[in-house]
Amino acid sequence: MKFFLESKSKEIDQNDKPLPIFLIVRKRGFAQIKTYVERKCPRAAWDVGKGRVTPRKFKLDPTGLNFYLERIQKKVSRLCEDALEEGRSIPSKVEVRAIINKENGNEVDDRQSVLQFANEFLAKSTYAPNTKKSYQTTINLLQKFVDEKLKGKLKFEAINLDFHDKFTEYMWTTKKFNDNTVGKHIKNLKSIMSESFERGMHTSLDFKKSRFKAFSNDVDNIYLDEKELEAMLKVTVTSGSRMERVRDMFYVASWLGIRFGDAVRLTKELFSVIDGQLYLVMGTEKTKANVMVPIPAKVKPILEQYDFKFPVITNQEFNQDIKEIGKLAKIEQSVKVINIKRGERISITKAKCDLITTHTARRSFATNLYLRGVKPETIMWATGHKTNKEFMKYLKLSNMEKARELANVIK
User: 0.90 cut: is pTM over it?
Assistant: First the structure.
């Protein structure tokens, strides 16, 4: 058993940069357990041979840190002795983590460990706001499920295939969710279970089984062609109103290919003129991908009107107003939408304007450029998509448009 300093750090050449300390418990020379101990130390102050801090080189309470490591080592040693007496070669990672958590005042309440961990993990995460919102929705849903159906507390060991079946049934029947919404919550739950497993909080692995799956089906989302976009821009609204801001922001996003979360983050500093052409240069909020998009001449005056920064508006307000603008623009043709629930395809018909959302702008950008003949890899570079599979979901071509594209090739 020995403590080590993290060596796979980008700061490896900076001896004064604090690096994470981790513990390895070995049997017969093979690493059996590796877990971090929630402390850091500069490389220059670390004694590799002793696995401890060198007091004269460590400015921040070296004695306290070494005592902390010594306490953990003694307690884990006793764990190892107990494990041998019980016929086990080594204690579990969960048992070792319990010691470290207790030393740091982070004991997990076994009566409701999943939800407690999930909330604490989310609070400390660096996820984008919309991603955090998605996880929080899943956590809230889990809490309701526990309160209504389990009548007790949710333990990590309870997240098994039986729980998966009951939770998905609850989402389908009680909440009336479609397959993709069910899949989103299962995906978030699997991420929570994976993160907690990596931290040694449990040993339950049912969440990794193939039947513990997150459903996902292609959705018949719409896009707006260039004529429809221009019609929406021409809709007369009160000057300075929220409707005007929504109309203009949607039009700009439709020509820049950015998400709603990125549109509300626009500032003048994100725009640069290169060789006479104005570009948007930014890292996207969701994927952190760096994009560089040329600004069309017809979009520039709108950006200048707002000094390149749109006023704050909520996603809910935006989606409400953009549907009304679509209606005023006479984008009211009937559209058949397929909703899949429990694998069953349910067809419903809606006016196209009622299907317009914040994300329609981004789909319109990708689809309209594709129809203009721009190569998919070029559009992906502009949108920040990393895989062709994900990008192709954004192309919302009708059967007629696909047929015309094929006809142009086989003439």
Answer: no
Residues 6+ apart with CB under 8 A from 182: 168, 171, 172, 215
49, amino acid identity: G
In 207-333, beta strands by DSSP E: 271-274, 277-283, 290-294
Distances (CA, A) of 290 to 265, 375, 380, 406: 14, 19, 11, 33
What span, in angstroms and rounded, lies between the C-alpha atoms of 357 and 151? 38
CB 251 within 8 A of CB 322: no
| CATH code, residues 226-410 | 1.10.443.10
Using one digit for the tens of pLDDT, what is the confidence trace for 37-61? 989 888 889 999 999 998 888 877 7
- Do the Cβ atoms of 142 and 154 come closer than 8 Å? yes
Distance of CA 132 to the CA centre of its chain: 7
Domain limits, the chain:
2-103, 110-208, 226-410
| Contact indicator for 345, 338 with CB cutoff of 8 Å | yes
Contact 340, 220 (CB under 8 A): no
Coil, helix or strand at residue 301: helix
Tokens of residue 408, six digits: 């142009």
CATH number of 110-208: 1.10.150
- Taking only the tens place, the pLDDT of each residue in 353-399 is 999 999 999 999 999 998 898 998 888 888 878 788 777 776 766 55
Q: Tell me, yes or no, if the two domains 110-208 and 226-410 fold the same way.
A: no
Helices 129-145 and 113-124 cross at an angle (nearest 10°) of: 170
